Amino acid sequence: MQPTNNEKIRPCQACKRPTRPNGWSPEEYPGTVTYGGHGHCTSCRRAQIDAEKDKAELDRTGVRPTVEQNKASLLAYFAARRPYRIELGQTNFPDPLLTHPAPKCGTPAGYKNHVKRKEKICDQCKESFAEKRPTRRTRELKPCGTYAAWARHKRRGEDIDLACEEAYLLHRSEQNARLRERRAAA
């Protein structure tokens, strides 16, 4: 036996307003709201989805641990791994919290270390960093009568001369020919 239309109208589980299935007109069923799925009307379902997204975002970002919490978790990890390391024959256990020594002066890493610590940069580090750092490369401009020169004129808003216009038209015709060949092969 088919359910009647009044049997399909059920209250929303959250707000208790009567819901009608999608596609039913509100004029025929006044006082009802559209069913949004999972036993809720559309507005309650939307709020439920938004709340789930907010919770997922909070779970994903969370709160960053402090330095002490990071150190404690690192020490706990190494303590838990120690029995397995002993089984494998390891006898020397370095301190896991030992940081790397500062880079030597006179190297690019030493220069960056000075900058990071906001110290005065020594001459050795300045020289080594200057040697490593690439010099600015300047390009030679293509002469007029080439597609690159036409593009440069367009980019700078300059008047385009006849030679560059011809180069552009030649470039476009070659490009269209390649496109026609690819289409014919496909």
Rg calculated over all Cα atoms: 36 Å
Shape: flat
Mean pLDDT: 83
What characterizes the major β-sheet? Answer: 4 strands, mixed
Give the H and E element order. Answer: HEEEEHHHHHH
> Could you tell me the strand content as a percent range?
5-15%
Poorly predicted ranges (pLDDT <50, ≥5 residues)? none
Number of strands: 4
Helix-and-strand structural type: alpha+beta
Helix content class = 40-55%
Task: Determine the N-to-C terminus distance.
Answer: 57 Å
Tally of separate helices: 7
Report strand order across the widest sheet. Answer: 1-2-3-4
Which descriptors apply to this entry?
four-stranded mixed beta sheet; 7 helices; 4 strands; 6% strand
What does this structure look like?
The protein is α+β, with helices and mostly antiparallel strands and 186 residues long. It has seven helices and four strands. The longest helix is centred in the last third of the chain and has 24 residues. Helices cover 53% and strands 6% of the residues. The radius of gyration is 36 Å and the shape is flat. Strands 1-2-3-4 form a four-stranded mixed β-sheet. The relative contact order is 0.05.
